[in-house]
User: Fold Fructose-1,6-bisphosphatase from Ascobolus immersus RN42.
Amino acid sequence: MWAHHGAPLVRSTSIQEVKSSGLATISRWNPLKYDSAPLRIHDPSFVHFKSYSHSPLRFLFDSIRYIKVHLPTNCRTLSPITSSDITTSPHKNNITMGGNGNGSNGNGFSVDSGTEVQTDFITLTRFLTEEQARLHEHATGDFTLLCHALQLSFKTIAYFIRRASLRNLMGLAGSTNDSGDSQKKLDVIGNDIFINAMKGCGKVKFVVSEEEEELITFPGDGKYAVVCDPIDGSSNLDAGVSVGTIFGIFKLADGASKAEDICLPGTEMVASGFTMYGASANLVLTMKGGAVNGFTLDTALGEFILTHPDMRIPHSRSIYSVNEGNSLYWTEPVRKYFDSIKYPEGPDAKPYSARYIGSMVADAYRTLCYGGLFAYPADKKSPKGKLRILYECAPMAMVMENAGGMAITDSGSRMLEVVPEKIHDRSGIYMGSKGEIEKVLKVFNEYQK
Ligand code: FBP
Assistant:
């Protein structure tokens, strides 16, 4: 159903421009049945919204040219919605929207919207408490407490990264990690902050960190193991490029006591995500089988605010992200795939755009927001790939899958089902929009015939 001020609403016509940004309300939205039926917006310049209650149905929009309401066939309304049911009002709230218009801004407004004082916003703390009550009424609270400790580590790391040049925290620490990488000062600081926060919450038994060769074991009867890359992309730190913390959380089986007990497939994770320290600190969090939610750190309040509820990755987008500097070492199927998107055949075929920051968190966040594909193939130089399964590939794969995307290995198998041979095991990875990963699989399958 399409709508434009004054235009009759019929099920499928296009509409004219309305406003640059604002809040739209459909007042007589009263589906008699299936009221949780999602209203989906398909065009990139639209936001995605769901009917949370009978009426009115509100959603925010930003630089939208059209309002298009697409009612699922199995949804009935009292009567056709007319344009007079839709009111729009300018909203001065600084909405953060992905390029493709998904990641609507729900109740998680930022607090300072000009003259309007937001008094009802969703902080990460409130979100975790509500999720625990909603999903796990018999929960002990251990998981929520662990997440609070994670939140503290992200805020603290964000603080030191923001001040790194001011506090001489740039440059090398003079030490190396298990894979021989020269550690940055902030690699060491970030690692210490993360490990101390996990120890401090008393709910964690084991930590696997990229910066620690061995498994870290804490005293006590913590029920969780946390895997992490405290400062992913640290080679970019001194250039002020966005870096991040990647994490995954496992609930331990009884008797788990050694590193092998943490060599589990990503399907065993209860939650995962990452925090990107860039223009602002953006946390992306997902729970097993759940939605992907985005939070932005309001440094004035020191709170992560829900700004991107229910993030969905677009089904396809002609953007690819890979270090082409390695193409000399690529295997034939990999070369064939990237040639197919760089030199597409056919009259209207257009080559894909290339985007590569060289910081997995930043490349992943852009891919989640805009769509496309991020890949780090295994190659003749790194036959097992570069990125680590436990604390880089698997956590990202869970985020991509829960946002409607996919993540696979070089052999085309599901990344989340890969069982690492050891805690720092590596794999090639292709992740992002479902439509794009299916194209990779098509090329790989041709080679496997
Ligand atoms: P670390 O910085 O945590 O070791 O991460 C590895 C990483 O920097 C990823 O963030 C990034 O995607 C990749 O390596 C970049 O590798 P390259 O410089 O070979 O393209």
